[in-house]
Specification:
With 146 residues, the chain is α/β, with parallel strands linked by helices. It has 4 helices and 6 strands. It has a single domain, classed as 2-Layer Sandwich (Transcription Regulator spoIIAA), CATH 3.30.750.
Amino acid sequence: MTSLHFDSLVLFHDPALRLLYHRWRGQHNMHRFRPAVDYVQHALRQHAIESWVIDLNGLPNLGLDDQMWLSDEVLPALKPLTNLRQLALVLSDNVYNQLAAESLLHQGQQHLKFDIQFFADSAAAIDWLINPTGEPAVPVTSRMVA
């Protein structure tokens, strides 16, 4: 598994599982949000990702301009990603971002041709992605979870 750290993003990529996990870092550093999202989109395409975890923990409030940009430009760009099968969204305690994420997914549902589930923690999200049978999985290693 490859771990990459940017000033605003932590990414984990597992080529064998075709899994991408990312979590925001850098409390109030939203000037890096759009470049970080662009990088994630590039990684989704480049690595033919099938399973994706978006961890909203640490993400400052999404501004209205960023929400519109996600809705108008980012979500439509996901539609051609035919390899993408699952998205696990890890919700934070930030109710504002929870509502924004749910609203964005609802508005963009015509572009999202993959299964989406919501989780309270990243371990459960990763378990859902790598263990579709529902049987007890091997415990997730700490290096897979940020």
